[in-house]
Model the fold of this input.
Amino acid sequence: MLIIRNPATGAVIAQKPVDTASQIADKYRRARKAQPTWAQTPYQIRAAAILRFRDLLIKNADDLAQTLSAEMGKPLSQAKGEIRATPQRIDFFLKHTEEAMKEELAAESGLTGGTREVITQEPLGVIANISAWNYPYFVGNNVFIPALLTGNTVLYKPSEFATLSGIAIDSMMHEAGIPADAFITVIGGGAEGAEILKHPVNGVFFTGSYGTGKKIAESVAGRMIRIQLELGGKDPVYVCEDVDIEKAAESLAEGAFYNAGQSCCAVERIYVNEKIYDTFLDAFTKNVKSYKCGDPMQDGTFIGPLTRAPQLDILDRQVQEARDKGARILAGGKRMLGPGQYYEPTVIADANNSLAVMREESFGPVIGLQKVKDDEEALRLMNDTDYGLTAGVYTANEDRAKRILSQVDSGSVYWNCCDRVSPRLPWTGRRNSGMGSTLSVIGIRAFLQPRAWHLRAP
Ligand code: NAD
Done:
């Protein structure tokens, strides 16, 4: 039984039976059987159902946001923001999927001495979509919408920390007209995720931590199936001396603390040019101290509780080590008293890359800052990590930003912005941040396999 607690109060809000191994086997069989029919369903019919799903998201946004806040503690305004922004991603997929699936004439027979060459695109088959809790609408839709539009059937496992939102997604899918066996939800945690992968699925699309991603990659190794992993990050930003300090501080504080820092692309490390270090620290800390922490359901709350209780211990350990090794705590620095899994928004100055807070994903409202003497030092420190999801530079000079960013080994780079995802751009990590891309046309093709036709008339 999955016991679902509200992280703001500790109260049990629901209990859901998890799927047994035999139920998962049955779900797999149904998804496999339904796949050819779903793939042969005309694209317009598949797209019309996805459009109705999109409209249901908009219609139900307020209720869905309440559920999301209650089960994972995201402030209501941020939950609404996530759900209301999801249709923009669906619109991108609706606009571009048909084109991405189109048959392509690679060469007329006249060009090749008699053989016409054609490329067609086909769905992978049955895909497993194992999802995270921090943005269940964003990360779920990035996978299951293009998967379904391209004719795959989907075994969707929402995170155990976003199960109620997953169940709501499931019922809207079917209300919208997606067949019961084309989109099937599996309820449970890690064991149930692993159980899905015992079946011969044709692709695994995973969003979650590096540790779990590694286990998944190992569990399917040798099966030659499509595998896509969107994992964590330790995203650095460098602030140059030529910025508008107030503006940069406001933007970066929001990038570090939005969703209580529980974003894969949250700003996790900040390097500041020595010429503005002290002034920047003051401006940054002022912003952080202004954030309202508390009940996620209350208007104006910017920082809610942490979704997973064990993360509080990780943050305590990171902060304690930083303190012990001479870093300065300019704000916060401990968990908050009372019910609920709250951690004070914490600013650690004079950090360095030997500290866990600058190396391990904090995934909470804690940030380390370090003074650097120039661009070269900043670049070296930014690249001193196992992760490669996003990186940013704040400067008045675009050429300077591009020069630095082109040498940082990460999937997304930002000039004067951060914590930003676009449906038009591939979302992709390097090294321990993962492999493959969602979003953009590349993230549609991820659900397709090409067939090469060599056609010679007799
Ligand atoms: P997690 O790795 O704990 O769990 C993710 C999912 O995997 C859950 O559904 C879980 O039940 C399942 N799972 C756990 N063990 C499994 C196993 N052995 N086999 C199969 N499935 C298993 O991650 P989380 O706590 O849900 O998410 C937080 C992490 O996700 C952070 O590291 C964050 O950076 C990352 N994330 C990355 C992106 C991105 O786009 N790169 C987006 C969101 C979150």
